[in-house]
Specification:
Cytidine Deaminase, domain 2, metal-binding, Cytidine deaminase, cytidine deaminase activity, 107 residues, zinc ion binding, three-stranded antiparallel beta sheet
Length: 107
């Protein structure tokens, strides 16, 4: 399942709209029902209106009725680690069954 999540996050990363930072991020969220929802970062000239990939993926799932997040893959710059921002961490904790972020890795 981990490889599938990473693959889907990589695919989502390519859809990122990031004309200001040029920093593409993709996420794949696995929910309790077994469905995987993906998301990318969507930037806006008004920086506060930017939506991160993690929230895009989680909100897609929640908008379809999913409620319990089981796992998530996050892919940003392929040469370094990418971590969720504070807002994304709060959203992850809101929906995650396991409140710990287990692992971060470069691919």
């Amino acid at each position: 399942m981990k490889k599938e999540l990473i693959k889907k996050a990589l695919e989502a990363r390519e859809l990122a709209y990031c004309p200001y930072s040029n920093f593409k991020v993709g996420a794949a969220a696995l929910f309790e029902d077994g469905k995987i929802y993906t998301g990318c970062n969507v930037e806006n000239a008004s920086f506060g209106a930017t939506n991160c990939a993690e929230r895009t993926a989680i909100f897609k799932g929640v908008s379809e009725g999913a409620r319990v997040l089981k796992a998530m893959a996050l892919v940003g710059d392929l040469n370094s680690y990418t971590y969720p921002c504070g807002i994304c961490r709060q959203v992850i904790v809101e929906f995650a069954e396991d409140k710990d972020i287990k692992k971060t890795l470069k691919i």
